[in-house]
Amino acid sequence: MTRMFRMDEAQPRLLDETGQGVIGKPLDRTDGPRKVSGTAPYAADGLPDGAAHGVLVRATISRGRVTDIDQGPIADIPGLLCVLADERMLRNPAQGMAGAAPVQPGAEVHYYGQPIALAVAETFEAARDAAQRLKVSYETEDGVETRPDMASELEVGDPETAGDFDTAFAESEVTIDSHFTTAPHAAAAMEPHASIAEWDGDTVTLHSSLQMLRFNKKELADSLGIDPDNVRILSPFIGGGFGSKLGLGPEGVAAALAAKKLGRPVRVVMTRQNVFDVVLRRTETAQRVRFGADKDGKIRAISHDDRVSNIEGEGFAEPVTQASQFLYGADGLSFTQTLARISRAPTGSVRAPGEAVGMLAFEAAMDELAEKLGICPVELRLKNLPETHPMTGQPYSARRLADCLKDGAERFGWADRGAPRSRREGDWLIGMGVASAARSNTLVPSATRVRLKGDGAVVETDMTDIGTGSYTILGQVAAEMLGLPIEKVEVRLGDTDLPGASGSGGSFGANSAGSSTFLAAKQIREKIAEMLGCPSDELTLQNRIARGANREVPLTELIEEEIVEEASIEGGKTAESHFSSGFGAHFAEVAVNEWTGEVRVRRMLGVMSMGRILNEKTSRSQALGGMIWGIGSALTEEMSHDPRTGHVVTRDLANYHVPAHADVPGDMQVVFLEERDDMANPIQTKGIGELGISGAGAAVFNAIAHATGARVRDFPALPDRVI
Ligand code: MOS
């Protein structure tokens, strides 16, 4: 039976009361052995018999229309099967549901490198040859802008305000008015985007690498103009997503169309260059942060304005000021966003959309304010934590930001920090920086089915594991509730034939799919209690033995075949009465070479309060990974676009610099403060995947300013900017 749970109900705490000790333990990932032994199948791995190979043909203009595709030059290619540019491919790019991505190639060109057709052949080499030698004619549009700072098509949003910023700012004794820029970022997932499509009559199966299968199924059905019941998507293992696989990609639609047309399976794998050219990137930003404060450090006015970009017609605009709206209090707050329409690859969600870039500028400006006031940056933050959400007036559900700042300062040795440019080791200037971390917390509708047999359980949902640990934590939730060792819980994910989950994204995966798994297992407990004839809160389940009503029965005797229960949780911003967010504090120590401007991060510490920890090891890995992204955004990560065409110049992992091992210090510490969020969801967790990146880069940036005594306001802090 399926039951729906709403967040305004009284909170069940049974996850604590079972006392099995499986929840929270730093268990190894259950999918680990398959991944490291190469036996976990990824999207492009299982090539079906008779499969053909497709390669995306991409536009070589910045904006305009495809007028003709001449196949003359490729007629002699052996094994060429077709060039697919049929009507469905030549209509406008459709908006993806999850990622606002153009999900299929189209004749209308919005950016250089956009997919416009698919070349299909017996071999990958022949298909690539055809894709490169096709003669495509265009009608090009004049006066197209590829640079956001030059864009004339600007959509200025309405200011979001509370109180009167202008008056509060004008009356402030000390003010800051600083302008920042951040570079466009790539998700840079290890596994390139890939799809294999197979048809059986009217039904298509897509093997792909995607984050939100329930939504992706609908996207594919919409793109093909078929019933969603005729679509099955399989995505059991995913080599990273970071937002780039939230929405269905053009290669998936193209593979499905070509497979239908040819009556045989088709595989389309993007090259690394394709991924950089085509997949949603994070917008570049220009940001202006203004603070007004009294001399004693009480903030009176906060304003954070930003400019982001996207191609024409796309709905996504990076929510840059998301955390700026709830971190600190003031008499007047004001936030305004401007969206520039330009011809560069479209923008979308990349890890922590909003906070990841917004907090770089906002928290760097806080550091400037602290310096101008002559107040310790930790003290300034502690002094300005509001009682309630400054914009909505909601109480916070759980917020240990003050504890994170204090605990972190103590552990990091913050008291020894000293004045700016006061520490030196030879040619190296040493500095320390701090920044708050915050990432708002959500729930997305999610369903799970749990089967309990005498000898173990099976968890079934179309949830994905993008390398984050879903297989493991969902197993832990079920094992805890059903009194089973983790080895006795089989977790089946990544198949749209299973109950529809939230998918992985926005740090909502563990909250949402974890909650529905908990609720389904709880229903099973109620069933067993009924069978024993005891109230469900008096039931004990341990080592496959059920105890209750003075009876002790092995599950093998109690359960004839299996007990099957399904449960779902509603989506939304957790309990509406409260505001739920993860919080934390990042600390960084850097060394800056006085002559070359090279920055080395020496150590980092993140102290975080992020609700109940389901698995101490996978949580720590997420936090660490996020902090490493922080190093990247502060120091090295920058997508460069050719100013003439908008084409991506840094199209591989040699030219787009994610931090490598040598860039990351050995001393990376993560501390979790104990916390339960009663208002977040039935398992009292909060999002973990994105809190680590949010604010981390600002801590590094602030450490550079402390080391050198000078401010850089353009991210990343490349050596020529630092010196
Ligand atoms: Mo995340 S950027 O919502 O995968």
Describe how the helices and strands are arranged.
Layout (H helix, E strand, L loop, with lengths): L1 E4 L8 H4 L14 H5 L15 E7 L5 E7 L9 E5 L23 E2 L5 E7 L2 H10 L1 E6 L13 E3 L3 E3 L2 H6 L3 E9 L11 E7 L2 E6 L4 H12 L6 E4 L15 H13 L3 E4 L2 H7 L6 E9 L5 E12 L21 E10 L13 H19 L3 H7 L17 H12 L10 E3 L2 E13 L5 E8 L2 E5 L9 H13 L6 E4 L16 H24 L7 E3 L2 E4 L2 E4 H4 L4 E7 L11 E13 L5 E11 L6 H20 L31 E6 L23 H13 L10 H4 L1
Parallel strand pairs: 1-26, 2-14, 12-13, 16-17, 21-22, 28-29
Antiparallel strand pairs: 2-6, 3-5, 3-7, 4-6, 8-17, 9-17, 10-15, 11-12, 11-14, 15-16, 18-19, 19-27, 20-21, 20-26, 23-24, 24-25, 27-28
The site of dioxothiomolybdenum(VI) ion (MOS) has 11 residues, from loops.
Which tags fit this structure?
single chain; about 725 residues; alpha+beta; Aldehyde Oxidoreductase, domain 4; 7-stranded mixed β-sheet; 6-stranded mixed β-sheet; 16 helices; binds dioxothiomolybdenum(VI) ion; AldOxase/xan_DH_MoCoBD2; Ald_Oxase/xanthine_DH-like
Account of the 3D structure:
With 723 residues, the protein is α+β, with helices and mostly antiparallel strands. Among the domains are: 2-40 and 443-569, Aldehyde oxidase/xanthine dehydrogenase, molybdopterin binding domain (Aldehyde Oxidoreductase, domain 4); 354-442 and 576-722, 2-Layer Sandwich (Aldehyde Oxidoreductase, domain 4). It is 24% helix and 26% strand. The protein contains 16 helices and 29 strands. Helix 8 runs parallel beside helix 15 (696-708) and helix 14 packs across helix 15. The chain binds dioxothiomolybdenum(VI) ion (MOS). Residues 211, 241-243, 246, 349-351, 353, 505-506 line the site of dioxothiomolybdenum(VI) ion. Dioxothiomolybdenum(VI) ion is lined by residues 211, 241-243, 246, 349-351, 353, 505-506.
